[in-house]
Amino acid sequence: xxxxxxxxxxxxxxxxxxxxxxxxxxxxxxxxxxxxxxxxxxxxxxxxxxxxxxxxxxxxxxxxxxxxxxxxxxxxxxxxxxxxxxxxxxxxxxxxxxxxxxxxxxxxxxxxxxxxxxxxxxxxxxxxxxxxxxxxxxxxxxxxxxxxxxxxxxxxxxxxxxxxxxxxxxxxxxxxxxxxxxxxxxxxxxxxxxxxxxxxxxxxxxxxxxxxxxxxxxxxxxxxxxxxxxxxxxxxxxxxxxxxxxxxxx
Length: 250
Known about the structure:
- This is Alpha/beta hydrolase.
- Keywords: Hydrolase.
- By secondary structure, this protein is of the alpha/beta class.
- It is built from ten helices and seven strands.
- It has helices at 32-36, 64-79, 91-102, 125-133, 138-145, 152-165, 168-179, 207-216, 232-235, 237-249, and strands at 6-11, 16-21, 43-49, 84-89, 107-113, 194-199, 220-225.
- Strands 1-3-2-4-5-6-7 form a seven-stranded mixed sheet, sandwiched between helices.
- α2 packs across α3 (91-102) and α5 (138-145) packs across α6.
- The longest helix is centred in the first third of the chain and has 16 residues, at 64-79.
- The model has no long low-confidence stretch (mean pLDDT 96).
């Protein structure tokens, strides 16, 4: 398989290998704060950029969540990893779950932060258009719909990096991907423990939204992160990384 997704960074020398997947609005730079606080003795972290983002920007966007998962697995194969955990945020969280359904024998843990649904997120025409047009002012959309408590300077940096690492066609292609996920019935294939972390103040990814996903997982648990919204790794960096590593060790 052609490699069309590339790692922006591989850090650490630990025996526990971790594939890390970003969400829709930002490349793997969304993890820069948590990377600085990560345990690189016990873990090896591989931060992937999906096709069309960041280090993989020259590539055409992946088609569907299945295409995203296939790109991630192809990149992991290049590392020679036969056993690994997957951490993913939002769109990357649902892709982490897909990776675990496609290669359950290889995935030892899944940690999904504020993941969108494996059953898709149906949007009416007007709402879908509003999400697509949020490209014009992503900062306002993030504050009003995802992270109402995010600090202004953090939001400014997020938006600046959004503009520096992707383009509008990529934005629109991946909107289609994450809203149309359709593998809820395959979650029973996942053999590993799954921790789903969500932000207490996230208006979008709530406990009620996540309930169908939890109900379909053989070994899933829900973890609430207090006082943060959709971007725990930005809004409460140390706490988010601590929660991720705790779930990976569980």
